[in-house]
User: Which sequence fits this backbone?
């Protein structure tokens, strides 16, 4: 663990792409190295590029090792400046754009900000609509437009339905509602009446009882709602009900929100509406 | 526009990284080419890799051109299979991992799913907490723990505070609350009492009156709340109040949620808590 390394994510826009790719690449070395990750978004002028180079060089001097720099700089002039830094420069655009231009037989536009920009109002509107829809239909709050949902997540209280819906809305523009399964549903072993007719859009979420207990206990410490025996009972009954009704379900315990959302998108054959 | 091209985003995990990078790269050619974008997540077995190759080859035959394939396959065996497809393969891991191994002097772990996996329970918990915090403190809903917010977004109703807060929570683990500025605040030209003492955590959001009118009119068609004159009045007064109080603010009209959230993170010097 002796080696100290810095990793920079540099972009003339949000740096979200550089950061996401760069972060997943450095985690491939995180068993043996500790990275100090620094994001520099909106490096969109000669002055800012020079300031970034200074910061990278300072870090290099402090660490005693060259930083890694993951960059997505569309403007060639700025990339040239960043290239002068005392670092291993991994220019995501340069590395890919050249073979793409060769393959496609046309030059890249080298225009800034085609991705993650507000230029596309249709995308923006889709996303806002989807987020608002998810908020209006959180935890069975409104059943008015449930039939308009692309997907309705069901599961016991506090199993992770809400953030998964919001992620589906935010990232993919999917209209995702969620509806809780509660003890009354288990005694009748029937789906709640409000969603019974919408079986095709239902997707289940479940969770390990211990995790659920932990989460509920933070919310309502010492309540019977949060006991392990009650959590285990609810989870078992909810899973039995979903199996009986042939509703596919996923376990949130071993999956991140991204994995859940991507899996649901894929398995429910939903089409993402935004990029 | 004659050339038809497909772009595949292939991964043994969620494919979010491959898709984000690949999408922003193909948009560099979207002036002259139309891409059919296809995401193949969870390609995590030999069988699935072979099925992916078949799908890519079918698309190549249909299009009459080789697809572009952006892949993030950690497992070398699967990458080898994908490499046999009739396509330009742009293997994001392979391209970067080699120079990184050389620079760092250690081999990559080639372990699947270090990024976007639920393994890191601390990250998961941070994010859930942040999302729940944003939901509890949406639109001034609760003022109880406002002092615990990392940032409080202020602005007129329907200007984009809520999705920006949720994005900050989901993507960066930031505890973001939002509080509306309403006509009463403009007649007194003072900040609402509930947030007056929290000036350092306030960040403003504003919007073009025409856009605001459009958004409000969808919500409450024909209301005086949604008229252009009222929208223009509220926006002008809110901006004057924020200037008077020295609160930095951003215009959502020309920015995407990602840009807003990243800019606020950067300018308010907040530290992202999750990756």
Assistant:
């Amino acid at each position: 663990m002796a080696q100290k390394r810095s990793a920079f994510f540099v972009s003339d826009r949000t740096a979200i792409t550089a950061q996401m790719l760069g972060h997943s690449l450095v985690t491939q070395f995180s068993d043996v190295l500790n990275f100090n990750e620094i994001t520099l978004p909106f490096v969109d002028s000669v002055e800012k590029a020079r300031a970034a180079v200074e910061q990278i060089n300072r870090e290099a001097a402090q660490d005693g090792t060259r930083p890694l720099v993951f960059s997505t700089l569309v403007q060639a002039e700025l990339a040239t400046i960043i290239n002068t830094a005392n670092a291993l420069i991994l220019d995501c655009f340069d590395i890919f754009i050249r073979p793409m231009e060769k393959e496609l037989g046309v030059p890249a536009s080298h225009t800034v900000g085609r991705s993650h920009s507000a230029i596309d109002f249709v995308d923006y509107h889709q996303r806002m609509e989807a987020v608002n829809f998810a908020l209006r239909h959180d935890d069975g709050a409104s059943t008015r437009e449930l039939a308009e949902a692309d997907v309705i997540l069901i599961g016991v209280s506090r199993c992770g339905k809400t953030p998964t819906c919001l992620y589906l809305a935010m990232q993919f523009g999917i209209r995702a509602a969620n509806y809780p399964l509660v003890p009354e549903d288990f005694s009748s072993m029937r789906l709640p009446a409000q969603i019974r007719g919408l079986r095709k859009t239902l997707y289940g979420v479940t969770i390990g009882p211990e995790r659920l207990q932990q989460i509920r206990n933070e919310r309502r410490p010492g309540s019977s709602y949060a006991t392990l025996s009650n959590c285990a009972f609810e989870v078992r009954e909810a899973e039995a009900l979903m199996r009986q009704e042939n509703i596919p379900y996923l376990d949130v315990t071993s999956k991140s929100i991204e994995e859940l959302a991507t899996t649901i998108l894929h398995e429910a054959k939903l089409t993402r509406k935004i990029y």
